[in-house]
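Batch manifest, entry 17 of 40.
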Amino acid sequence: MSERKKQSLLNGAIILVISTLVVKVIGVCFKMPLGNMLGMVGVGYFNSVYQIYTPIYAISMAGLPIAVSRMVAESVALNRYREARMTLVTARKIFLLVGGGGMLLMLLISVPYAYFISGIKTLPALVAVSPSILFCCYLSSYRGYYEGLRNMIPTAISQIIEAFGKLVIGLILAKIIMQYGESTYMNAVANGTSTVTIFGTEVSSLSEAYSATYPWAAAGAIMGVTLGAFISLIYLFLRHKAKGDQFTRLELVNSPKPPQNSAIAKHMITIAIPILMSSLVLNATNLIDVVTIQGRLIHAIETDSDVIYNMYKASIDADVANNLLDMSNLVDFKTYLYSAYNTALDFKNLVPMITVSLGVSALPALSEAWAVKDNAAIKSAVNTVVRISMLIALPAGIGIGVLSEPILELIYGRGRIAADIPMIAPVVAVFGFTTAIMSISTPLTNLLQAVGRTDIPVKTMLIAAVAKIICNFALVGNPKFNFYGAVIGTVLFYVINVVLNLIAIVKETHVRIEVVSGFLKPLFAAALCGAGAWAAHGLLSEKVLSAGDSTSIINGSNIALVIAIVVAVVIYALALLLIKGIAREDLESLPQGGKIAKILEKYKLLG
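Output type: structure tokens
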């Protein structure tokens, strides 16, 4: 008998959700000190590189991990264990080739992209991050293999290792480089020298010294991404060597001879191509988005910089006074504005990165149900994804929306981005209130892929992408909107995408979406949760905990924020129970969930 344990849809999702939460916490621990070290301009260079790296990386891998997962799951279900292993062997070869191609593409595009975005300043960081595409692609062959075996633990652990490597290595390198640039200038001043060369640039002021150092410090920070991916790859390689897949000797002996590598590769590519097309549309949109937003910001600045200055006067004056911004430098000022938008994007992606796990876990379960025409299982899978997505996204998003400024104060309130919080907080609030729409986007795409309609996400993304690009071009270039125009475009993109995909799912599966349990009950409980959080923080920070040193992380506002979050969680849980917003199957996937479900059922608190 095999000792392998398959995880259910929710069990697998829970493991990935936990790992994603840990990764996000590590990400916050990375971004907070990074922002304090580099300021808005330095973080802007870091984000600009990430914006080109992400689509190239995503396109390089698009569809392949899903194809591997699906093929392995099918092979194991049919007792073709040797074929499952051969799928991994083939996948590693393909991923190595594709990852190498992605790395070369990144290197080739680095110079023109860097020249267009920053006059070559982002080039060091672009070169530093390029090898990570190769490492990430190769390690994804192992992740896809274990996911196909319904074992999400290797994926979860490797993601945490990757994030922790980025945190430690990236911050150390960024700090060393920033200290070098600053000390080089200060030592020159102490020695009576009016100018000094830092990283090949002659500078005569502290603000110019920082400007010359930012690109290299950003490169040091992003080197953590590359080395973190490499360490994660080593972990998966060693784990597979040590534990393998736990196929028994009897299973392998009795399984049929596997197809040739070429046949497996052909099948893998056939599955991956439609998913690749969706990824191409999405990431091409993101790439156009990056270029369009930054290009239109320059247009807005050149059109009427005074309008923009008056919108963010307090933040700009503070950064100029602290030598963190030189408004006369067009590239730096554009990067400064773009960085404010990108800082808010970190919060936009926080909750959707958690709900993505539901789509990853649901895809093989729904594919199996669709293949055997199990209508009850199809209905359960679709409604479970919708309901759990809303149960997570609505309270989290509304909480972020009502507490956007205190959250930013907690993370950035004592560093170089502190003065910029007033210009970032409204964007974070908008993304918070629309988080539910963004969070369900990818799971809906996964559901359509599971039922064989991989063409629909391509079409809906195309329509949404065109609307977004038009919106960006029209609004971002207007000084009165500047980067707020990109916020409107982003929300519009997700609204169009979700509405069209949801209509398609209902049409294809003939599943009736449970509106009350899936949307209305979570929304009602989340609204109470948000109101409680807002009231608790306002009362505590202004009336009870107003005392304290605002420069310390332990101050009235931050303590009030933590208490407000606890109050919000309690209100949300109680509200869900009172309106019977939790289903029995939701609890049964949790440790001791069966016992909890029996207790709640006894008191008629389950939906």
